[in-house]
Amino acid sequence: MTMTPDTQRHTVEKIGGTSMSRTRDLLDTVLIGDRTGDALYNRIIVVSAYAGITDALLEHKKTGEAGVYAQFADTDGGWGWNDALTAVCAKMHAQNAAVFDDEGARQTADAFIRERIEGVRSCLVDLGRICSFGHFQLDQHLLTVREMLASLGEAQSAFNTVLLLAQHGVNARLVDLTGWRQEGTDDLNACITAAFENIDVTRELPVVTGYAQCREVLMGTYDRGYSEVTLSRVAAVTGAGEAIIHKEFHLSSADPRIVGVDNVRIVGRTNWDVADQLSNLGMEAIHPRAAKSLRQAGIPLRVRNAFDPGHEGTVIWSDSGAVQVAAGVEMVTGLRDVYAFEFHDQDMVGVKGYDAQILETLTRHNVWIVSKISNANTITHFVKGSMKKMRQAEADLSRAFPNADLSLRKVALISALGRNLRDPSLLSRIISVLDGVGIHPLGIHDAMRKVDIQVVVEDADHDGAVIAMHRALIETDARPKTDARTEDARTEAVPLHKAA
User: Within the chain, what is the greatest distance between any pair of CA atoms?
Assistant: First the structure.
């Protein structure tokens, strides 16, 4: 791979699915914008599937509505998956029609995805026939099926993007990591190295599929967070100067739908520690495993609004010891529909093993643990998951510890996040502002690392607590902030969370 000198290292930039669905707008911002000549290059673009396509191929991420995969995996579902795959094909053709005005380009895009769809259909028919014999078990192949189906979405968006860029005079090149009809599987780093071996990023604009088939089996570990893992590994393997994620919103100080668009602040810079806390609350700036690759490679991450090209966005990186960050809250965010799973046993005092068995049980039932706290005879985990799974975990623990009292209570977690929360007045201010709006915390967690303070409130008080804490800790906080110049020129005055 040909690269520019270290002083002008290339960027690796990922475009999310919602943004990808506004392809025409992207031409005026991320893909081309006001760039001409050499400025069009020295970038690598990693694309997600168009919005809704992966939901249709697998299952709806929020509602759980069955897609092709879920119907195929349901052994009692018959041939419903076949009709679902035909519907996905029609949906993909409709997306092609929305992207291309030119009839020839649209037909080329339709033919590409039709060939892939029919290849997958034949594969699933054959697999179903083979697994009708007792020697072959379908569940042993389902993860492979899931990966194969998911890859169709990124293959379509990457192919279309290259075709569209070529129509506009850009020397774009498809880097298909999906492993389509490829023999053998290598590890992800080797796959990326081989794919970029003959690419000159100074003269070509590589467009990479967000899904990559590799020995690590990305969906087995990251499920639908694989595109960000691809972004981070491409950046690390190719020696990028910066990784960029283009979203349809800025990362801001709170959800503008709750506190109001005019009240949020764009947190121009923060660090990986804060990003990890944000991910733990289900609002990732980047998948935690993807962040690890960038952090270890010393590559900063920039989160930008794909449709606000004039704004530099938010930089996330490792703060050096020389960086002085003023104490203060950078974000206020919350998580609803959390359950406080309380385990109380008077016999626990001085006895080891309780915590280990509780963790094993929750993990076995695939219950997401957000936070926990304990004292001499009580361990409380704050968890998310289906009520069915939590009741199963509760039943298992009741059998294991018949003398224990177990309870589930629906709550919300509100978190104040920042690189430096070592202001001794923060706790009292939070309690005071919540009391002022009639919200009484059920609990407060303030760890010694001082990057987050979590407040447990009634689920119905979620929005009110976020609004009150954001107003007091961010909107009306007049204390001086760290000058961006003391950190790095790349982080100059720029905006974390969903700001429209």
Answer: 75
What is the C-alpha to C-alpha distance for residues 464 and 472, in angstroms, rounded to an integer? Answer: 12
Determine how β-strand 242-247 pairs with β-strand 301-305: parallel
Residues 164 and 28 in one domain: yes
Q: Among 95, 121, 123, which Cα is nearest to 109's? A: 95
How many structural domains is the chain composed of? 2
Together in a domain, 347 and 223: no
Instruction: Give dist(CA 206, CA 200) in Å, integer.
Output: 9
pLDDT category at 139 given cuts 50, 70, 90 is confident
pLDDT tens for each residue of 340-376: 999 999 989 888 888 899 999 999 998 999 999 999 9
- Helix or strand or coil: residue 440? coil
CATH code for the domain of 168:
3.40.1160.10
User: What whole-number distance in Å separates Cα of residue 385 and Cα of residue 206?
Assistant: 39
What would the mean pLDDT of 283-305 be, rounded to a whole number? 87
* Distance of alpha carbon 257 from alpha carbon 60, whole angstroms: 23
Place of tokens 């626990």: 348
* Nearest-angstrom CA–CA distance, 128 and 293: 38
Q: 248, 282, 309 — which closes off a domain?
A: 248
Nearest Cα to Cα of residue 246 among 54, 46, 422: 46
Average pLDDT, the chain: 89
- pLDDT tier at 491 (50, 70, 90 boundaries)? very low
Bridge partners, 406 (sequence order): 343
The DSSP-derived string for 351-389 is: --SHHHHHHHHHHHTTPEEEEEEE-SSEEEEEEES-HHH
Residue 407 forms beta bridges with which residues? 342
Q: Considering only CA atoms, which of 265, 262, 231, 239 is closest in space to residue 250?
A: 265
Measure the CA dihedral 90/231/178/200, to 10°.
110
